[in-house]
Each structure stands twice: as C-alpha cells, then as structure tokens.
Amino acid sequence: MTIDAHQHFWRYNAADFDWIGEPMQAIRRDFLPGDLQREIAAAGVDGVVSVQARQTLEETRWLLELAGQHDFIKGVVGWVELASSRVRADLERFAADQKFKGARHVVQDEPDEHFILRDDFNRGVAALGDLGLRY
Predict the structure, then answer these.
(1) Does residue 27 have a pLDDT over 90?
(2) pLDDT tops 90 at residue 64
(3) How does pLDDT run across 50-62, given as a tens digit for each residue?
(4) Which DSSP category does 72 fall into?
(5) Other CB atoms closer than 10 Å to residue 7's CB: what's the count?
C-alpha cells in the first residue's frame, strides 16, 4: 500500500493563509478531497494522511469530518494546544476517532525560541504518547 503521509486540505482565504505569498499564487485556492482523489489515483497512491494547515481545533474537527466522508483519507494529524491544561481532554476526544493519528504544532511561528523546551508543551507531547498518538 502506498500512502502520501503529509498532505493538506483547505478552503483558502488570505487571512488564514497569510504565509501563502505572491510567489505561491498557484496554491491560492481551495484544495479539497475531490481535487486530490483524481491525482492520487493516477499516481497509484492508495491513501493519504491529511495534516492540519491551521492551528485550530476547528481545523482538526473539519479534517476528521473529511476523513469520515472519504475512505482514501487514512489518517489525520491535527492540532491541539499541547501547552494547554486541557490537552489530555482534547486529545482523548479526537482519539475517539480511529483516523486521528496525532498532532503537530508549527513551532517556528512561536515568539518564544525555547517553546519546545517548556514543561507545559512537553507534558502535552507526553500525553500524545500516553494515548498511542504521534507528534
């Protein structure tokens, strides 16, 4: 089985995707499962892991909804606020969906250059492991 392990879906709007600058004009549009399904079929790819493009719980919920509607979406790597006191509850809620495989946090956007060394963040990463999820 061939899996594309890092792929994004989005409904484009300039405010949420301000990192998509002028040189990337070709991707200033929606990317949805119907767009990708044709491409992966032609390439012989059996499925994908969809990865969050925005750091919101809403995005994670939306990706899981898409995964529930499309069998070729084999997994979702979403976002939860790993440094939050409610991280375990958020992770447990998402982990109830078998397609939720883990979470990521885009650390280069953090103003604190030592963000990944913080105890609260590392407690969140440990909670992922406790639940059999990946960072």
Answers:
(1) no
(2) yes
(3) 999 999 999 999 9
(4) T
(5) 19
Question: How far apart are alpha carbons 2 and 73 in whole angstroms?
Answer: 12
Q: How far apart are CA 30 and CA 27, in angstroms?
A: 8
Q: Return mean pLDDT, the chain.
A: 95
Interatomic CA distance for residues 55 and 19, integer angstroms: 13
Q: Which two tokens stand for residue 65?
A: 């909804």
CATH of 3-130, one of 2.40.128.20, 3.30.2010.10, 3.20.20.140, 2.120.10.70: 3.20.20.140
Per-residue pLDDT averaged across 74-78, rounded?
A: 99
Q: State mean pLDDT over 92-100.
A: 98
Residue with tokens 């946090």: 105
Beta strands in 1-135 (DSSP E): 3-7, 47-51, 73-78, 100-103
For residue 36, the 8-state DSSP code is H
Classify residue 134 by its DSSP letter: B
Give me the residue label for tokens 């002028």: 22
